[in-house]
Specification:
The complex is a heterodimer. By secondary structure, chain A is α+β, with helices and mostly antiparallel strands. In chain A, helix 4 packs antiparallel against helix 5. Chain A is globular. Chain B is of the alpha+beta class. Helices cover 47% and strands 19% of the residues of chain B. Chain B contains 2 helices and 1 strand; from the N terminus they run H-H-E. Classes of the chains: A alpha+beta, B alpha+beta. Strand 1 of chain A pairs parallel with strand 1 of chain B, so a sheet runs across the interface.
């Protein structure tokens, strides 16, 4: 069980407010409906207004899940212009060795763009993503720099 | 799940969870769960 992993649990306790939305609790049902959650377990990362910016469906092994949390947290922070903090999270997720690295690289590039309108760095990260993980679905979401 | 509950300080009240996220400038982890 991923939530019983000490590294994951420590990260959650130190950085997030963890809330259980249980199908066994009728008061939580509107949250399932509002966020189109039809499968459990799912994990949503939401901002302080309750808007979910990142939803992970099904189980993930601990290392992957830690990156899910970092990416989701970063996406929430980017929505509130907390770019420097988001970059730190995404750099850590991108430096890990799990299946979430391509997604972390994708969002890290966008974070550099939002933080400094730095398209050079954005395209460099996307190029790294396409080079290292050409078969990743995330490599298909990028676009090349404009030609001169 | 019981062991996981022991390790994580889960909030069970949504309104309180949102208040806590706002006060601590944290994000919310919403664990969508179905009891066995």
């Amino acid at each position: 069980m991923t939530y019983s992993n000490h590294t994951v649990a420590n990260y959650i306790n130190d950085n997030l407010v963890p809330y259980i939305a249980s199908m066994g609790d009728r008061s939580a049902w509107p949250l399932f409906r509002a966020n189109h959650v039809i499968w459990t377990p799912s994990a949503g990362l939401a901002d302080h207004k309750g808007s979910i910016h990142h939803l992970s469906v099904g189980f993930s092994p601990p290392s992957d899940f830690l990156s899910v949390l970092r990416i989701g947290r970063a996406r929430c922070m980017m929505a509130w212009m907390r770019y420097a903090e988001a970059i730190k999270e995404l750099e850590q997720a991108a430096a890990s060795t799990n299946s979430m690295v391509p997604e972390a690289l994708f969002w890290l590039a966008t974070a550099y763009y939002f933080a400094e309108r730095d398209t050079v760095r954005m395209y460099a990260i996307w190029d790294k993503l396409a080079t290292l993980y050409p078969d990743s679905p995330w490599a298909r979401h990028i676009y090349p720099p404009p030609s001169d | 799940m019981e062991h996981a509950v022991d390790l994580i300080n889960w909030e069970t009240d949504y309104t309180r969870a949102l208040e806590s996220a706002r006060d601590q400038r944290r994000q919310l982890l919403v664990y969508f769960h179905k009891p066995n």
